Amino acid sequence: MKKLIIYPFEKEISDIARYREILEEYKLVNIVAPKGWGLGGKESSKLDGGEKTGMIISEQFEKALEECDTVFFNDTKSQALFYTYLDKIRIAYERNKEILMTKALYERLSLNEKLDFDVNIVNTPMNYYDDFLNKEYRYKLYKINTPIIGVFGIGDYCNKFDIQLELRKKFMKDGYRVSQLGTKQYSTLFGFPSLPEFIFSSDMSMEEKILSFNHYIHYIEHKENPDIIILGIPGGIMPLSDEYTNYFGELSLIISKAVPIDVSILSMYYTKELEIKILNDIKLYFKYALQCSVDYFNLTNIKYERDPSSGDVYYTTMEDNQKVSKFISKQGELYKIHNINLFSVLDQSAFENIYNCIIKELAEGILQI
Predict the structure, then answer these.
(1) How wide is the angle at C-alpha 316 spanned by C-alphas 344 and 53, nearest 5°?
(2) Tens digit of pLDDT for each residue in 313-367?
(3) CA distance 147 to 292
(4) N- or C-end of the chain: fewer Cβ atoms within 10 A?
């Protein structure tokens, strides 16, 4: 396996460190943050608040190059750091390191200057429509026979990808054949593709996207013959406010109309006031708008906050996951009476219970895995 380092390491890609044991083709040997971020010497779990991973964040980029074959350059939102990328990339390239990045980062870098080094893009290459779109069946939906798990979120940055990876790890460990489409552009590092690019296209109607996605899943089902399909659904299921619309939950609507979701998981931001009535209203929204049921709710350690004067949105990660775990331990049975199964993906024992419930639900129902 190729030895991999990540630069710059931050909260948004902490899942790579947490689930490094299921990386394909790569062994994560170091995670590097810029010196000005104050992360040097800290455990990666300090960024996501979960259990310890054993990965310590370094600030020594050039020293880390000595122990790796490949550098994955993370597409950080830090604009100040963005202008230092090319220097770091050239240093890695001059030392004969494989350069990995997402298509989005490559395109951003290319806007500023011509890139004179080889880059490997981690995004999934899109199959041509002719590969999976049956023109004779173009305006019809295929029946999908494989059980599908959908991982939804109330919005962005709420641990959806952690849930996708945890499900993958457990199903594969138990010997199931898993087909999967992920919400992160770097999903391919874990051996499965991200969602196809056409689902985000502004040149296709909603009807075309629904039909195309249905045909795409049908194509995957017949090509890979999986026992289970796991779909990550980007963004949120509905607007959170007039200012933060979540694109009106368009992707959730498209995917749920394209294929039947047999088991749904919804990931939510942390709040002290998790009202059963609100969760029941969400269940009704799933039933009538998304045409599936949701009984599993992941409570993150991330707070969604909005500045009332500016309208700006902030996501604050709690220092650890203990408050979430205590809340679930104390209140979980009360919610369960209403068929609301609360859990935290960062709590291994809690997620193990949810996984067993999902297996039982699939085994006892019409579904066969």
Answers:
(1) 50
(2) 888 888 788 889 888 888 888 888 888 999 999 999 999 999 999 999 998 865 4
(3) 13
(4) N
Which neighbouring-strand residues pair with 303?
316
Q: Do the Cβ atoms of 32 and 8 come closer than 8 Å?
A: yes
Question: In this structure, what token pair is assigned to residue 255?
Answer: 């995917």
Kindly report, residue by residue over 102-111, the tens digit of the pLDDT.
998 998 888 8
Smallest CA-to-CA distance from 299 within 353, 349, 341 is with 341
Amino acid at 337: I
| Contact (CB, 8 A) for 47 and 77 | no
Cα-Cα-Cα-Cα torsion 192, 285, 349, 347, nearest 10 degrees, comes to: 80
CA 274 to chain centre: 23
pLDDT tops 90 at residue 67: yes
276-288 vs 322-336: helix crossing angle, rounded to 10: 70
Task: State both tokens at 142.
Answer: 């295929």
Place of tokens 């994955």: 72
Q: Return d(Cα 215, Cα 354) in angstroms, integer.
A: 30
Say which residue the tokens 């020594």 belong to. 60
In this structure, are residues 347 and 324 in contact, taking their beta carbons and an 8 Å threshold? yes
* C-alpha–C-alpha distance, residues 129 and 257, integer Å: 20
pLDDT of 15 reads 97
